[in-house]
Design goal:
By secondary structure, this protein is α/β, with parallel strands linked by helices. The protein has five helices and twelve strands. The strands form three sheets. Strands 5-4-3-6-7-12-8-9 form an eight-stranded mixed sheet. A two-stranded antiparallel sheet has the order 1-2. The chain has a two-stranded antiparallel sheet with strand order 10-11.
């Protein structure tokens, strides 16, 4: 199945009919009254309005459109996703590794221990790597770097690429790497949230370095790329 599904369609979930109606009405009104698109790396994308995680309020509104476009460009290749995120918005037919979330087809394994038989042409991760080592007990901040190195050296095929997003302000170890010029990525881009209306613009590290992580919402994200 190609990645051509209309990811703006609404899943009903287990809410009551009245709850779905009012949530749909609020989401629709928000969509009508807000800007329709944002720009990333020279390309215009539509903001995502979806019930899952109320994307019109947070970084999912920009992350999913960007990563879905990447899927469209690489849909015939071997793809791995770290963190079961995209399946909540689009039908997927790629491998997913997620240590904690139990779902059909998801490999519940620590990324450090995952050893694929065949390497992947594309590895994606949406706001997941910031939890590696940081939200584990005992806390082991440097595990983030080991995870990225493992994906690059053990899971990525020659000529492939890794594309990941991480929120700024959540993982202080990762923020420190960016601040000290020790980013693990070949290239990196930044998007910054500039309004409570969830508008996002391209930025750089200097424009995002003081961003905080709010209650369930990032105010800046880093999109990092590693090319094999």
């Amino acid at each position: 199945m190609p990645y051509t599904y209309d990811y703006t369609s609404v899943a009903s979930g287990n809410d009551s009919a009245s709850a779905r109606y009012w949530r749909f009405a609020k989401m629709t009104l928000t969509r009508w009254t807000r800007a329709k698109t944002f720009v990333f790396d020279g390309q215009s994308y539509p903001y995502l309005y979806h019930f899952c995680n109320k994307t019109w309020k947070n970084e999912r509104g920009v992350e999913i459109p960007i990563f879905r476009e990447i899927l469209l460009r690489h849909q015939t290749e071997r793809i791995l996703e770290l963190g079961n995120v995209l399946a909540h918005y689009v039908p997927i037919h790629h491998d997913v590794v997620d240590k904690y979330e139990v779902a059909p087809g998801v490999i519940n394994q620590d990324v450090i221990e995952f050893a694929p038989v065949e390497r992947y042409d594309l590895i994606l991760s949406i706001s997941t790597l910031e939890h590696v080592g940081w939200d584990e007990e005992p806390r082991e901040p440097a595990k983030l770097l080991r995870a990225i190195e493992h994906l690059r050296d053990r899971c990525l095929a020659p000529g492939g690429q890794i594309v990941v997003s991480l929120p700024v302000g959540y993982n202080k170890f990762f923020d420190g790497l960016l601040r000290d010029g020790k980013s693990p990525f070949t290239t990196q881009h930044f998007l910054k949230r500039i309004s409570k209306r969830n508008y996002w613009v391209e930025s750089d590290w200097n424009g995002c370095k003081d961003a905080t992580y709010g209650r369930f919402v990032a105010h800046a994200i880093c999109i990092g790329i590693i090319r094999g």
